[in-house]
Structure formats: structure tokens, C-alpha cells
What we know:
This protein is an alpha/beta fold. Helix content is 36%, strand content 21%. The protein has a nine-stranded mixed sheet with strand order 9-8-10-11-7-12-13-14-15, sandwiched between helices. The longest helix is centred in the N-terminal third of the chain and has 27 residues. The N and C termini lie far apart (74 Å). The C terminus is likely disordered.
Amino acid sequence: xxxxxxxxxxxxxxxxxxxxxxxxxxxxxxxxxxxxxxxxxxxxxxxxxxxxxxxxxxxxxxxxxxxxxxxxxxxxxxxxxxxxxxxxxxxxxxxxxxxxxxxxxxxxxxxxxxxxxxxxxxxxxxxxxxxxxxxxxxxxxxxxxxxxxxxxxxxxxxxxxxxxxxxxxxxxxxxxxxxxxxxxxxxxxxxxxxxxxxxxxxxxxxxxxxxxxxxxxxxxxxxxxxxxxxxxxxxxxxxxxxxxxxxxxxxxxxxxxxxxxxxxxxxxxxxxxxxxxxxxxxxxxxxxxxxxxxxxxxxxxxxxxxxxxxxxxxxxxxxxxxxxxxxxxxxxxxxxxxxxxxxxxxxxxxxxxxxxxxxxxxxxxxxxxxxxxxxxxxxxxxxxxxxxxxxxxxxxxxxxxxxxxxxxxxxxxxxxxxxxxxxxxxxxxxxxx
Length: 433
């Protein structure tokens, strides 16, 4: 075994042991590990030089540095995570990968990142133990991994249950985003941004549901809407995995996420439990990162019991489908009432549904329509588009004046002048949509 390999064996063991018990921020721990590794390298090289006349070459030192940085960072993924344009990383086994870039573009990863499946599995297991908010296992007894890295990226990995190891990393490049940024990027029109800002601002904010397909920009829009809340408001955010990062900018934030069971099957905290207990937090608003099940009943209850301005995202291909899915999730809780009563309640407390859409041909992501929820008649939601794109790729334009007196009052209290919105066929300034 070469001197470099012998030294690396000691460095790796000492660094791994130190990191598992270290406290402090990730950069601080990494710096201490580098100093520790430097001390080991100098000591071992001096011993080898004294005993055998052997020293490390420049190539050996470069190899040791590369291995250490891979250990402290995210190995072969580090270069991609440092790029501002990378939003997703997908690895389909050790030799095939693709990057999801901003704007919907894709870029194949040149060359294999790992020698074989065992090396890829070992790397993922290393991430699970050392880079997560909490240590996790990734092995034959725990072949599925859902992990949030300390730097914020979301990781999902699988082995055993699939033909080849699989890894995906979802990056959050735009934690701080405002509605003006979406206008500049073409996701929103200026009029629609002003409308949404007035809708979610205090003192009488509307309850908003953001719907769309996977990757359509729902979370990005939700972050932008949260940028309009008042600095004095107390906000509770509930997520499967932290993606909103409101506590980075808003001081009065109670941010909570679910927790998986430990290796003994204990300690799990579900979204339903988080949502139920959030009603005791005393928050002005309840924000749910994504509605997926029974927690929808608690969200609906929050919207109707004083937490005005509550918001959530939900997977759906239209505003009507979003509302129908919300009701179905409530029914699944077993705690909600009959379906007609739920539909009536949802129509009464959900004011707006914003439908996001993505175009895989162009990579565009933006608002397709902004829809107000009116009433529920004969077990069916009555909705009305306030802004809409006639066809995919068309501009987002006003489709009609809001009809709900409650919504109009909230918008006016939020600072929107509806005087220019003359009737249901005209938008601001009388411009035809």
C-alpha cells in the first residue's frame, strides 16, 4: 500500500469519527477537520521520511486534498451544487446522470460519477450519516432515503427495490424571491402581481390555494406570496421537508417539518399531527408546503377559524380539480363531515386558487390562471377566472372583475384600486383580455 493510501486511511477514520460528535456550523466543522487532516499528514509523512526515506509527491498531496474535500463536501456532486443554474440532479445508477437546469433545460452529466453501484451506495450512505439535518441509514434494511442536507438540498435515494441505485437531489436556488421577480421573468403580469399582493397583504388577507403539476413553480410562487405578509404577523409553516425558508427573512416564524421513524420504528411525526397541533400555535397564518392527505382537513379548519391569509400548494391540473382534491383529502381524514358540507365549507373559506403551468417545450413556468371561488351549488364549485392565459404561451391578462363581495373588500383593504375594473368583461383600465 502506498504512503498516500496509508495516510488517507487514518485521515478518513479520524475525520469521520470527529464529525459524528462535532458541534457548530457545517463550515466550522469542515475547517476543524481540514486542520486535523493536515496535522495527520505532516506527522505521518515525517515518520515515513525518518524511517524509510519516503515522502509524498505533489500528486499524492493533490490526491489527498481531493479525497478530503469529497469527504467534507458532497463528493462528485459538489461541482454541480455550486452552480447557480442547477435545480435538480438525477442519477440513474453509477454511470448515467442528468442535470435539470433553470428554465426547464436539461444537461447530461459527462462521464460516470462512480466506479460501480457499490461505490454509489457507499457515497449515499455517507451523505445520510454526515450531511443530513439528522443522521439516517441507507442500507439493505433501509433501502429508501428521504433526506434534507444541512445546506438545504432535498435528497431522495433508493436501492434494492430498483434495478440500479437511484439518486435525485432537488436544489433551492431562489429562497428569496418577490412577485416583482416573477413579473420580470414573465411568470406573472404586473397587474396580476398587484392583484395577488393585495390579496395576501394584511389587514384582511385572502386564503389562497396554489395548484399545478410537479415542477410547475408552486413553491416558488408561494415563497413570493409570503414576501407580502406583514412584518408583525406570526406565521406557522408546515412542510414534509423544509423548502419555504420563511424563517430566513421573517422573524416571527414557527417552521416545522415532519420526521420519519427511527430504526426502531419510533419517533415519527406526520404532517397530519403537525397540522393538528399547529392550531394551538396561535399563528396569524398557517402555511402548508403541500397538501397530500388528511392534513387538508386541519388546513381547511384553520382557514375558517381566524387564520386568514393561510396558504397551501396542492397537485392538480386545474382550480376545480384542486378544490375537489382538497375535499377528497378532507374526507380521507375520517374527521370531516359529509361531502356536501365540506364542499360548501371549502367554497366559503378558500378565496383564490392560483393555477401554475409549465411548458416542457420551452421550459417556461408561470401562472396559467387566477380563479376566485364563489359558492358551491348542487355539490359543485362555482369559480370565476380573474386572470387567465387564453392559450399556452399567451400573456396573462385580466379576464373579469372579481364577483365576490368578500374578496373585493379584502382586495381594497390590501390597497388595490378596483375602480378601474369597470365590469366583468374588462380588466384594469378597461383593457379587453
